[in-house]
Amino acid sequence: MPREFAADNTAYGWRQSARDRLAYLAFAGSLLNRFISSRVLLLLALCSMAAPVAAEEDFVAAGILLASQNQQPTMIFLVKHHSRLFYEMPGGRRQLISSPKGERRETAYETAIRECIEETRGHLSASLLQERVDPSRYLRDHGFVFFFGKIHRFTLSELGELSNSGGDSDPGFREVADYAWVALENVFASVDGTAIDAIGRRIVLRRELKSRLERAQAAGWL
After folding, report:
1. Which of 41, 145, 175, 193 has the fewest CB atoms inside 10 Å of its own CB, making it the most exposed?
2. Are residues 52 and 124 in the same domain?
């Protein structure tokens, strides 16, 4: 074979080999990107699955947004603690629970149920609240987790009768000084942090209450 043809064949083979190597590198890079992308998506999915549990367990206080059932306008049940000037949804701080296996911290649901029992002086029982309040449906406002339940509207005098008869002998039952039913629309209409309750009193609302109710409405609870 003439020398010039041999040289041309060698150059062609080198160029073909270079193209093959580039094609292989491009293919390998594509596979690597797909592998990384699938792992990233898997990681994000796992994080999104774990997030609600972390959000629910890492909290300071919990409560229940109680709304009147089958009534228009919708009424919201609020409580006022002795040490506070405002009305808010029933709730309180997380506590430790003693068990045969030792102490453990309450879940948000346990805290919310216990606080609601205490702050209604036992008028709302654990069985009733567990029936009406879904533990899987909750919202979080920083360190406060709140659940939602609908109950038949009871008269506030019923709570007063429990107090007069000694029904609030548990220290936890004596935290609340007053109660109120307030129309949801009155809370939304508030511009100064106050609202008119069901018996015509102007009461001061907790600062965060309106935004929490707006979030509950956006979630389809109200």
Report:
1. 41
2. no
Are 47 and 85 within one domain? no
Question: Which CATH number does the domain housing residue 122 bear?
Answer: 3.90.79.10
| 167 and 68 share one domain | yes
For residue range 87-121, list pLDDT tens digits in order: 999 999 999 988 888 898 999 999 999 999 999 99
CA–CA gap between residue 114 and residue 121 (Å, rounded): 11
Let me know: does 152 contact 165? Beta carbons within 8 Å: no
Q: For residue 204, give the H/E element and its range.
A: strand 202-204
In order, the DSSP letters of 9-40 are HHHHHHHHHHHHHHHHHHHHHHHHHHHHHHHH
Structural domain containing residue 133: 59-218
38 and 139 belong to one structural domain: no
143 CB neighbour count, 10 Å cutoff = 12
3-state helix/strand/coil string of 145-188: EEEEEEECCCCHHHHHHHHHCCCCCCHHHHCEEEEEEEEHHHHH
Same structural domain, 73 and 33: no
On whether both 29 and 65 belong to a single domain, the answer is no
What pTM was estimated for this model as a whole? 0.70
Neighbours of 104 (CB within 10 A): 11
